[in-house]
Structure to design on (151 residues):
């Protein structure tokens, strides 16, 4: 392995460790029995105990409308919380070289995408007010978010 590749591997591993088992605002994933396995790479997995503690958008967060973009980048979500107006369309774009999906966990509308690869998207039009919690079921420990839909 050449020196540059070795440095990149070390940096990538350090980023994974720094990211921990949650997004910048969320905590570890879970299922009905309190644990889940989240795949990080092609042949690795991480055992995570606990439930997802979905973050809420700040009270003073701006309300977006129209086409609202969410990026899947570096096995995280940007932004992982937001406020949108009823009638807006949310578009998730995968910027990672691994597949992701979008599945609602709770809220006024239910949705579940198929897995989608790099540069692919998934869209949902929000038609009812309420709080939508969602996650990538392939990487729930680091990829979970909240959308507050307002009138």
């Amino acid at each position: 392995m050449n020196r540059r590749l070795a440095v990149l591997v070390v940096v990538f591993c350090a980023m994974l460790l720094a990211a921990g088992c949650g997004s910048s605002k969320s905590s570890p994933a879970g299922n009905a029995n309190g644990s889940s396995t989240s795949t990080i790479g092609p042949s690795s997995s991480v055992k995570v105990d606990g439930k997802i503690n979905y973050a809420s958008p700040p009270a003073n967060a701006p309300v977006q409308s129209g086409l609202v973009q969410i990026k899947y980048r570096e096995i995280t979500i940007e932004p992982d919380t937001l406020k949108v107006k009823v009638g807006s369309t949310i578009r998730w774009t995968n910027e990672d070289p691994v597949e992701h999906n979008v599945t609602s966990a709770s809220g006024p509308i239910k949705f579940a995408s198929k897995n989608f690869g790099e540069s692919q998207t998934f869209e949902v039009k929000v038609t009812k007010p309420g709080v939508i919690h969602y996650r990538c079921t392939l990487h729930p420990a680091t990829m979970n978010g909240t959308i507050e839909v307002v009138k």
Q: What stands out?
A: The first strand starts at residue 35 and ends at 39. Residues 3-150 form a domain with the Immunoglobulin-like fold (CATH 2.60.40.420). Helices lie at 3-19. Residues 4-11, 13-47 have pLDDT under 50 and may be disordered.
